Structure formats: structure tokens, C-alpha cells
Amino acid sequence: MRQQFTQVLTKAANGNELTKEDIVTLLQALPGEEEEQLFQLADRVRQENLGDAVHLRGIIEFSNYCRNDCHYCGLRRSNKDIKRYRISQEEIIEAARHAAELGYGTIVLQAGEDLHYSGEQLADMIRQVKEVGDFAITVCVGDRSREDYELMRKAGADRYLLKHETADPELYTKMRPGTSLEERIKRLNWLRELGFQVGSGNMVGLPGQTVETLAEDILLLKELDVEMAGIGPFIPHHQTPLKDSPAGDLKLTLKALAVARLVLPKTHLPATTAVGTLHPTGRQIALNCGANVIMPNLSPAVYREMYQIYPEKAGSKEDADESHERITSLVKEVGRQISTGRGDSPKEHFKNGPAL
């Protein structure tokens, strides 16, 4: 291994703070021994800080309408070839009941930025789902007003996922027309102030991204002190402006995940569906590179292929039981066990679930 790489890896192993230059060095780990040592250290740090349990977060994708026109997303408002849907409240409740039967500790209510739903309606949805079972609720519906976030929090939402996508302000606005990174970070800070467990994250391989930008993504996640960070590869969608761009590199994604684990030892990191889409055993590999969360799709089967952020999404052709069985199997394959709790942040003030 190169001397500089060894020095930085040793620095990380000793729990010392990594600089941007250190992070870039680790992200540029060479194939072979350097990558292996990086992944092994990330796996060890995960085990020491979070144990061997894998937390399942069951996603219910309740609407694929979106007001945004993001260049990378198949749900973008300019895509006229997508069949739009909104799941009824009854179907959402039924999916939540099934999640409770399967023993899930978290439900993720996810949608495009669909302004059909007012803050009050989202709060009512959260209250009804919360009554179904003893699980935490994560909400992922994008940019809303502070008042809406407060309504959701008071209704019982425990967590909020709002990915920053890229720490490069110019690239952010280029990829997400009409929006700014500054506004997104403002909302992430609102969520923190309101007492949510906060999730963010970024894509790996966006056109125009550099390894330095990727290092800045990881440092931003540290600055935000997130409880969860979703790091997954960019996958081009044929109905977007980026349709001819190459997909993000699997190895670079895994290295970003591993370095994030070293920088954020107590943060929940999912083995993303996108990694599973790029490679048949992508999620198993990610679980050995620092990940400790999987987010199975629990949406009714009829809607799954319509929630197409990117094509051929892993699990989109399965029903909830098939998805659950496959996830359970792959967790066992890597010698880990399914968590039986809510999977709250191990940070002291979140250990027993945040006070509402």
C-alpha cells in the first residue's frame, strides 16, 4: 500500500478527525489491498459503534407526483410518459399493518414533492400510521415550509430524510433547476431545531462531480451531524436529460460509504436500493463496507414500477412479502441479524426515541 494511504488509514483507525485531503486520499484507494483495508476498517468501526443488527426501514411510496424538474429523476414534472398515482389512505394503513406484522421498527412515508398534500393532511397520515404499530416514522416528502415540518413532528414523525444530493452549490442548481443548496441546508437545520432525527445524503457519479466534491459531501454530512446518511450511485433514467450519462461507479460508491462510516461512526448508513440495482449482490457488499440499514419497499405491488426515480429499481417487481424474504435472506448471508427494535440513533438524546 502507498505510504500516504497507510498514514491516513491509521489516522482514521485511531479515531482522529480527517481533513478533506485525507478523505480524498481514502476515496482514491487503489484496487486490491488498499480497498480491502478500507472496507475492513469501515466494517470494524460499524461493528464497534452499532453492533451487528441490520435495521429494516419499510418504505411506502404513496405518491409519484412531483413539482420539481430534477435532471436525474424519472419522477420529474416534465416526464409526460410516466403514469402518476396517489395511494389511498386505506392502502397506506394496510401497508403499515403488514409492516407491523413483519416486525418492522420503522415506516418511511415517501413521495415526490406533491403539493396536493397539505401539511395538515400529511400530519393526519402520520397520526393514522402511528396508531397501527409501535414503530418510528420517517417522512421523505422534500422541501416544505417550517410550519409543515412542525405539524408533522407534532403528529408523531420521528425522523425526516432530506438528501442534499451534492455539496457543490452550482452543480446542485444545475441538476435541480429553480432550487438552491442553501435553501436545502436551511431546511435541514429547521428539522434539527424541531427535534427530528435527521437524514441526508448524496449521489455518487453525478455528471460534473469530482472526488473533491464527494469529500465535501461527507464533510457536509458531518457538519450537519446527521443521524442517517443515504449514499448511493447515480443511475441514469431514459426519460431525463441525463439519459446518456454513465452510471455512478459501484466501487467509488462503496468507498464513499466506507469513508462516511469512518467520519460518521454512529450514523445509520443504508445499503441502498441503487447499489442493489447496479449489482446483484450490491447490498450484501455494502453491508460489509460499513452499512447497517436496508430499506425494503412495502408499497402495494401495483404501484411499485410507477415510482421510477431510476429504471429497473431493485425489488420493484416484487410484492412486500417477496421483498421482505429476500432482504431477510441477504442479511443472513453476510452473518448479520435483523434488528427487533426501532433503530433510533445511538446518540444519547435519541436512545429511547425522541420526546414529542
Characterize the structure shown.
The protein has 356 residues and is of the alpha/beta class. It has a single domain (53-338), classed as Aldolase class I (TIM Barrel, Alpha-Beta Barrel), CATH 3.20.20. 42% of the residues lie in helices and 12% in strands. Strands 1, 2, 3, 4, 5, 6, 7 and 8 form an 8-stranded parallel sheet that branches. Strand 2 (106-111), helix 5 and strand 3 (136-140) form a beta-alpha-beta unit. The chain is globular and about 60 Å long. The mean pLDDT is 95.
Topology:
Layout: H1 3-13, H2 20-27, H3 33-50, E1 53-63, H4 89-102, E2 106-111, H5 119-130, E3 136-140, H6 146-154, E4 159-161, H7 169-175, H8 181-193, E5 197-204, H9 211-224, E6 228-233, H10 250-263, H11 273-278, H12 282-287, E7 293-294, H13 301-304, H14 320-333, E8 337-338
Parallel strand pairs: 1-2, 1-7, 1-8, 2-3, 3-4, 4-5, 5-6
Helix pairs in contact: 1-2, 1-3, 2-9, 3-10, 5-6, 9-10
Q: How many helical stretches?
A: 14
Largest sheet: 8 strands, parallel
Given as residue ranges, the uncertain stretches (5+ residues, pLDDT < 50) are: none
CATH class (first level) name: Alpha Beta
CATH fold-level name: TIM Barrel
- Oligomer, anyone? single chain
CATH superfamily label: Aldolase class I
Q: How helical, in percent, are the residues?
A: 40-55%
CATH architecture heading: Alpha-Beta Barrel
Strand content: 5-15%
- Rg value: 19 Å
Structural class: alpha/beta
Averaging pLDDT over every residue, what do you get? 95
Write down how many β-strands occur, each being a DSSP E stretch of 2 or more residues. Answer: 8
Q: What spatial form do the alpha-carbon principal axes imply?
A: globular
Number of domains: 1
What's the SSE pattern? Answer: HHHEHEHEHEHHEHEHHHEHHE
First and last CA, distance = 50 Å
